[in-house]
Amino acid sequence: MGYPRALHRWIPHPVVWAGGLIAMLEAGLNLPSFSEVARRRLGVATLITLVCASGLAGWLITWFGGVWAVALVGTLGLAQRSLFDHVRAVARPLAAGDLGSARAAVGLIVGRDVERLDESGVATAAIESLAESFNDGVVAPMFWFAVGGLPGLFVYKSVNTADSMIGHREPRWRAFGWASARFDDLLNLIPARCAGAVLVLVGRGGWKTMVRDAGKHASPNAGWPEAAMAGALGVRLGGPAWYDGQRAERPVLGEGRAATPADLARALRLYLVACAALWMMLAAGGLAWRH
């Protein structure tokens, strides 16, 4: 499930609206002339504005649209199809031996210097992105939709968008985006661990790796699905990577061999099974709630 491309022409995805609001607030409030304390406070105000606006939008659709509108908009808020398509666009040329095209495709979903990546590096980067985005794009939105309906889904998607846009450690965003980054961490606390659990469950292994290695990751949440994926596939993820010409020493997740193009194909199949398992769990939960 995902947002139909044809619909973009007439009604942009809600994330686009959230991104526009974030960009407008950042341009007007995150001024270099302001002190770091002032920018942090304005960042908090930006987050509150975003949460209130997105929550209100979800409530209005629920109030006026009814149950069918909630179901339609809610399922369109899940990014499982677009994520699959982006990663498959890496897997296909990589399997065909076209490293240049695979590098270009993976460069659309990761921030590292892709020209330095060999076949294993491309496969590793794509698998890591798939695992982390399984939480951000599928599990967490589904979790908050189940907990808070459309308001919960819209708040999560808008905060996650804010984290990706302004939740960085560079000087420009460090103070202003602090609140958005921390709140995004909080909203992902439970879903990320659920995402990891689902991956090792359907992958029939990897619990030990997930529990042991998840905490090594720089993110309090991303390590759970990434370590789970490493354990389920029996490969190593993480390790050194280059960003903007600088080498970053990242911890290694897993203790297997280096990832290969075949492992990326396996990761995509595992992802599809995990998504199907989630839908079955959601359906079972809905039936149990009705009774």
From TrEMBL:
One of its GO terms (molecular function) is threonine-phosphate decarboxylase activity. It is found in: Cell membrane. One of its GO terms (biological process) is cobalamin biosynthetic process. Keywords: Cell membrane, Cobalamin biosynthesis, Ligase, Membrane, Transmembrane, Transmembrane helix. GO terms for cellular component: plasma membrane. The chain crosses the membrane at residues 15-32, 44-71, 138-156, 270-289. This is Cobalamin biosynthesis protein CobD. It comes from Caulobacter vibrioides OR37. The lineage of its organism: Bacteria, Pseudomonadati, Pseudomonadota, Alphaproteobacteria, Caulobacterales. The gene is cobD.
